[in-house]
Write a structure and sequence with these properties.
With about 240 residues, this protein is of the alpha/beta class. About 40% of the residues lie in helices and about 25% in strands.
């Protein structure tokens, strides 16, 4: 099996293959033991902040762009966004670079689409305000970010967009961890949705990701890395979300 035939023989688009290869070559995706904000010990870590050169930015922006195109094609009820929004901080370069790729793919469709991002602190001089880029009044807004764990940033982004007069029509992330929301007794064995699943249920918003935890497990299978693959499978079994 090769990276191009992951997912039990299903065709894997070239953009996803290149994205995964880039993640490994740049140590954006690493395997080991990492303590998450939730306190869980994760056997892998994804750091989108490491996509900091031209080749890597091109790989991740291309992957986001084609994921967005597929997302819209398979969700006909979702309107084409007027604005691509990247939450500060990691979402900022992702929104800008992804929009450039979309415009290159189809200038007629994407040339007039805008980008926007929030400031962590409102500016009280110059143009002022809490946003940089396009305004969100009456806009359909598609949000892109790196990963979602607890969903806190997603909720904050929804509130920002709502406050500015826009409407979030969907979320696209790089990695769907597929793990249930943490609880005070995290190993209680009680089924719970993922953060993305909870957002889908709570706000009725569709979501998409470039890759999932399942893809990472298949990646390790392809590499012949049995030890890390088994650790990810164990983690999935322990924390798999109910959605």
């Amino acid at each position: 099996m090769t990276l191009d035939s992951m997912n039990s023989g299903d065709y894997v688009p070239a953009f996803k293959t290149e994205f995964l290869k880039s993640c490994l070559s740049a140590n954006v995706l690493t395997f080991g033991t990492y303590t998450l904000k939730s306190g869980r010990q994760s056997p892998y870590f994804f750091n989108a902040g490491s996509f900091y050169d031209g080749n890597l930015l091109s790989a991740i922006a291309t992957a986001y762009a084609h994921t967005i195109i597929h997302f819209l094609d398979t969700n006909p009820g979702v309107p084409k966004p007027d604005v691509i929004f990247g939450p500060a901080y990691k979402g900022i370069p992702l929104a800008c670079c992804t929009l450039l790729v979309l415009q290159n793919v189809d200038p007629t469709k994407w040339g007039a689409v805008k980008y926007s991002f929030n400031r962590k602190e409102k500016k009280d001089h110059g143009e002022g305000g809490g946003l940089v880029g396009a305004g969100l009044r009456d806009a359909n807004v598609l949000v892109i970010d790196d990963v979602v764990t607890a969903g806190t940033a997603m909720r904050e982004t929804i509130e920002i967009v709502k406050r500015e007069g826009g409407k979030v029509v969907g979320f696209v992330v790089a990695v769907d961890r597929m793990e249930k929301m943490p609880s005070a007794t995290d190993d209680d064995g009680v089924p719970r949705p993922s953060a993305m699943g909870q957002i889908r249920n709570e706000y009725g918003l569709p979501t998409a990701s470039i890759v999932t935890l399942d893809d990472l497990i298949e990646l390790l299978r392809e590499k012949g890395d049995e030890a890390d693959m088994e650790r990810l499978k164990d983690y999935r079994s322990r924390y798999l979300a109910s959605d």
